[in-house]
C-alpha cells in the first residue's frame, strides 16, 4: 500500500497552497482563479512601456483602472471637519500627468503620510483605483500605488524587461499584486502539458505552451507578446473546436427515424396553395433541410436569416414533410404572444390543410394545435389529447410543451424559434420526448457572423437565408435627438399621424412597462448597464415606460387615434385580444415593450418609434425595426434618444440607422460588446473561455482550427494519442459546460 499521497500536477495545485489563503481567497472569489494553471492563464490585458506614459484623457468613468503616470505636484491641505474641528484634518492632493491629460489623486486623514513621503514630483508609479468626478475633474480616491524604480533589486526583478504587464484586476487585488503572484508560480509553466499535436504546432511555426506562458507574462519585446498571443489564440480556438467536433461526431452516431415526405402528400398540396414562388434561397435551404431529414441520424441545423426573409415558411415546409412521413413536429416559441402569432399564421397559410378531422378539411389535412401555460382547462385537455393520439401533426407552444404531462405520439422534428431565448435544459427536455432523438431545427433572426456561428453554434450545420421575398418594402431609419432638437420629436408624432391618415398603423416601443411592480429584465439590464455612463443628464431618469407614454400620447400628440398597450405581464387572453385587434386594423397605434420584437407580423404597420432607443442593443433594434415594412408600403423607423451627439450610444444608433444589413450590424454589435464566453457564460456560470481569441478578428484561425479539429476527431474520437489535449478539454468542459455542449 502506497502511504505517500500522489502529488498533484504542478498546474493543478490550489493557489492557497502556493500564495497564502488571503490572496488565494480574493483570486477565487473575485477573479475565478483557483489553481496555478488558472493563474497562468490569467493574461495581461495590455502592457506599458517604461518610456511611455498612458493616456489619462480616455479614462472610463466609474471603472476600476490601472494607470502608469508621473507625479506633477503634491499639496497637503488642512481643513476643519466634524472629526477634526480645529482645522487639523489633512487632505493630500497629488496631480499625475501623462502629457495627454491630468488626473487628481486624493488621500485623507492618517492615510496621507506615506503617499506624501513617496509621491514626490517627478516620481513614476502605477496607480490603481476607481475613477470618479469631483468639481468637474477626474480623480481617484485613496488609490493603491506601486513606485516604478529601476534602481533597486526588487523592482528590477519584479518588473524585469522593458514591458510592464497590466492585468485584469479588482478593487481587492491590484494589477501589480497579481503580477507578483504570477512571478511566484511562473516556474510551473515549464510543466504545462501542450494540448496541440506536435505536427500541428510545428507546421504552423507556433511556440510551445511553456514558452508562450513565459512570453505573455514576462515579455522582453513586442515580438515576444505577438508570438505568445498567436500561440494562445490557437489553443483557445483548437480546444473549443475539438469539443464541438466531438459533439458533431457523437451526434452522427445517434439513431434517428429518416423522415421522407410522401410523393403526393401534404407538402405537395401546401406548395400548390402558395400564392407566390419560393425565393432561390428558400428553395436551397429547404433542400439542405430535407436532405438532413432523410438521414438515419438526427439533423442539427441552424437556420439564420434576416428579419422577414421567410424563415417561418421554410420551417413550416420542414414540419409538413415530417407529418407527411408519419411523424409529428413541435415548434417552441419564446413567448405566448409569439406562439399565438405562429399558430395563427400557420393555420392561415395551410387553410383547409390545417383542418384535419374537421368538416371541410382536406383529406390530406392534419391538426395544428397551440399549447401555452395560460390556456383554459378544457382547451388544454383537448390539446394534450390531440398530441398524444397523433391527431395533431403540428404542435406550437411555449415552454408549456416541455412539461412532463405532455406526451407525443411520434415526435420527429423540433423547431426552436429564437434559440438564444431558451435554456439548454428546456431544449433537451423537448428533444427527450421522441422515441428516438428527433431532428432539430434552430431558427434565429439575429444574423450571426460566420465565425460566431462556427463557435457559438459550432455543433450545428448552418443554413443562411439572405434574400428578402418579393413584395417586402425598404425601411427608412432616422435618429431623433430629443434633447438637442425637441422639434424633431414633435415632427415624429406628426409622421405617425400621417401614416395613420394614409390608412396604416404604427408601433411605439418603450424599454419599461411602468406599473412599478418590477421592471422588465430588459429595462433592468439596460438600467444597470447605463447608470455608469458619463452622459449623466440623459441617464438620471428611469427608462420611459409603456403605460406613461401611452397615456401622454393619447392625451397629447396622438389624441383622437386608437392607442392600445401591450406588455409581457398582461393576461394571455388580453395580450391575444390586443394583437388580434391590431392585426385586424382596429387599433391605430400599439405602445409596447419588446414583446413584439420577434415574429409579430402585421403588414399594415408601417411606422415604428423606439423611445430611449439607446437603452437597447444593436441587434435588438434591428429586430424591432423588422416589424415594419412587411407589406407593400415603405417602412419608417425613428430612434428617439436624449444622448449627446458625441456619445458612444448615439454612434451606435447612427450605425443602426445607416444600414439594414443585419450581418453588418451583428458585427458592430459584437465588436462593441466583445464576445464573452462562447460556450454561454449565462448558461454555465463559468468564467469566459476566451481570453485572447476574438471571434470577429480571428476568423482565419477559427476556420483553420475547425478543419484541423474535424480531421483529428475523425481519426481519433477519444483523443487517446493526445493526453495534453484531453487535459485541456477537461479544463474547458467543466461539468456544467459539458452538459451545455451535450444538450447543444
In short:
Helix content is 39%, strand content 18%.
In words, what does this structure look like?
- With 744 residues, the chain is of the alpha/beta class.
- Helix content is 39%, strand content 18%.
- The chain is built from 28 helices and 21 strands.
- The chain has a seven-stranded parallel β-sheet with strand order 11-12-10-13-14-9-15, sandwiched between helices.
- Helix 21 links the parallel strand 18 and strand 19 (589-592).
- Helix 8 (209-217) crosses helix 9 (222-253), helix 13 crosses helix 21 and helix 16 runs parallel beside helix 26 (699-715).
- The radius of gyration is 30 Å and the shape is globular.
- The chain starts with 15 loop residues before the first helix and ends with a helix.
- Residues 1-7, 152-161, 517-539 and 674-688 have low confidence and may be disordered.
The gross shape turns out to be globular
C-alpha termini separation: 44 Å
Q: Could you give the count of β-strands? A: 21
β-strand percent reads 15-25%
Contiguous uncertain segments of 5+ residues: 1-7, 152-161, 517-539, 674-688
Main beta-sheet annotation: 7 strands, parallel
The pLDDT mean sits at 81
The structural class is alpha/beta
